[in-house]
Amino acid sequence: MTKLKITQVRSAIGLPKDQKATVRALGLKRMNDTVEQDDTPAIRGMVFKIKHLVRVDEV
Prior knowledge:
Layout: E1 3-8, H1 17-25, E2 34-38, H2 41-49, E3 54-58
Antiparallel strand pairs: 1-2, 1-3
């Protein structure tokens, strides 16, 4: 299965609670933190919701 490399490039300070919760659910904790997640529709939906905060690369 394809993996997604997700890196947080902007801060979540001042964002709505649902967006902050999405950042945490992806496993991101701070700026420049990177996680690898499976490429599933659920993960893609989460990334779409916070696309202004993250950079996504396919691995």
